[in-house]
Structure formats: structure tokens, C-alpha cells
UniProtKB/TrEMBL annotation:
This is Protein GrpE. The lineage of its organism: Bacteria, Pseudomonadati, Pseudomonadota, Betaproteobacteria, Burkholderiales. Residues 45-89 form a coiled coil. The keyword Chaperone applies. GO terms for cellular component: cytoplasm. GO terms for biological process: protein folding. It comes from Vandammella animalimorsus. The keyword Coiled coil applies.
């Protein structure tokens, strides 16, 4: 049971003489939201952690790309070196083949030269012997040409003029059709499919 408050009691008098406790300025008007917002802080921390994780992921991807780039660069350099080596080997092979071809052709021609020297060494020979020796030497030379894929271009009279194989020196009146070969002044020669020189001809006007 509470006692009635007596303003004249000694207890009341003792309290009356004490000052009231000091409170912070604005404490009376403080609201719960002014004391801090834990939810907002947690959201900011979560966002920072997410950014950190994204940066880590980006760094890993960058490292992987750099490693792949280094690997591709090494592969490119190796492939380039292999290509350069292959090109040099091919050039060497072509040079050797060309040199060997010239040497082989020259060696075969030496036999023809020997035959000519032997013919000239004969002091007394009949016209028939000279003709026979010349034909034999010519056949020997044609055999050398054949071994080295060197073929003559000797068009038949009356055949059609071919600018890829023939060179017309002049056009003359003739009974043949216009453009037909009338005479062959000089044989042409081809090595394989390459024309060394065309045959010199005259054609019908």
C-alpha cells in the first residue's frame, strides 16, 4: 500500500535539494532510426563482398587469357620458324635440282662433243662418210634432248598457224587458206610445256 506523498517530509526535502541528472542534448527527441541502421550497413557490406568476388573472378580470367595468349604466341613463333625452315629447304632443293639438271644435261652433251671431235679428226673422209657421221651425231643429240624432255616444234606444211607455238616472219600469197603455214624457216623447241623458242614460219596471206 503506497504512502501519500508529503512535501514536508524529510525524505522529500532531501530529494528536493539534489540536482537532476544531466541528459545528452537532444536525447528527448532521439528516435530509434537515429541510433544506427544495421540493415543498410549489411547491404553495403554484402555489395562490397560481391564486388571483391567479381574482381577476383576478373583477375582469374585475365590470368587465364594471358596464359593462353602466351601459349598461342609460342605456337605462332614455332609455326613461323617451321615455315621458314621449310621454305629454305624448298629453295635449297630447287637450287640443287636446277644445278643437277644443268650438270646432267652438260654431261650428256659431252658425248656429242666427243663425236664431233672424232669426226673432225678424220683427215680423209668421203662425203658419204661425213653425211653418215653427221646423221649419227644428230641422232645422238636428239637422244640427249629426249632424255631431258626437250622436244622440237616442227609444224607440218599446210597446218594452221598457232601463235603459242609459231612465230610468223611474213605472209605470202599462196594457194593454202589464209593463216596456213607455207614454210618452216627454223624449228622451235619446248621443254615440257614451256616454250623455249617458237618455230619461225611463213604463212599464207
Amino acid at each position: 500500500m503506497s504512502m501519500p506523498h508529503d512535501p514536508h517530509s524529510p525524505l522529500s526535502a532531501s530529494h528536493a535539494g539534489q540536482p537532476e541528472a544531466d541528459l545528452p542534448e537532444g536525447a528527448d527527441n532521439a528516435k530509434p532510426s537515429d541510433m544506427g541502421e544495421p540493415a543498410d550497413v549489411n547491404e553495403e557490406l554484402a555489395g562490397l563482398y560481391a564486388e571483391i568476388e567479381q574482381l577476383k573472378s576478373n583477375a582469374q580470367q585475365l590470368q587465364a587469357l594471358q596464359s593462353k595468349n602466351a601459349e598461342l604466341s609460342d605456337q605462332y613463333l614455332r609455326a613461323k620458324a617451321d615455315a621458314d625452315n621449310a621454305r629454305r629447304r624448298a629453295e635449297d632443293d630447287v637450287a640443287k635440282a636446277r644445278k643437277f639438271g644443268i650438270e646432267s644435261f652438260a654431261q650428256d652433251l659431252l658425248a656429242v662433243a666427243d663425236s664431233l671431235d672424232a669426226a673432225l679428226a678424220i683427215e680423209a673422209a668421203s662425203a658419204e662418210q661425213l653425211l653418215e657421221g653427221t646423221r649419227a651425231t644428230q641422232q645422238q643429240l636428239l637422244s640427249v634432248f629426249e632424255r631431258h624432255k626437250l622436244s622440237p616444234i616442227a609444224p607440218e606444211l599446210g597446218s594452221k598457224f598457232d601463235p603459242n607455238l609459231h612465230q610468223a616472219i611474213s605472209a605470202v600469197p599462196a594457194e593454202q587458206d589464209s593463216g596456213a603455214i607455207v614454210s618452216v624457216l627454223q624449228k622451235g623447241y619446248a621443254i615440257g610445256e614451256r616454250i623455249l623458242r617458237p618455230a619461225l614460219v611463213t604463212v599464207a596471206a
